[in-house]
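Could you join me in thinking about how sequence relates to backbone shape in a protein? Would you write everything just below, so we can both look at the same thing?
***
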Amino acid sequence: MRVVPILMVTAGLAGCAAYQAENPALTEFPGIQAQIQGFYDDNATEDDWTCNEVQLDTIDKSKGARQTATQVVIAVTYYFSSFDESMRQGGAQCQGFNTRFFTFDKGAGGQLSLVSMTGPQRGVGG
């Protein structure tokens, strides 16, 4: 009966390895995922502004797009959703995949601070 727990552990490790393979930037720069999700949730809009209150549900892929001595740019492919509470009154229900670029400044000691993202944003021209 010990086969089942071993299979569960093996499947879990395989899933973790697959996630790390699809997200080398999140693995290389610990702590940026929370910054990305928070910044996106606070600022992003989707679908030509018809979805202006969206949330980032999952990061499916991430990779370093550019790195200099002072900045790191990460390309992130993600799944978003927005379920407007006023659906009966014509509210929007949005969901889908998209890709944006997130720019981080490098601080002393190598820590990263998110400073911008591409794409349409509330209060920003895009």
Q: What stands out?
A: The chain has one domain: 3-117. Residues 3-117 form one domain. Confidence is low (pLDDT under 50) at residues 7-15.
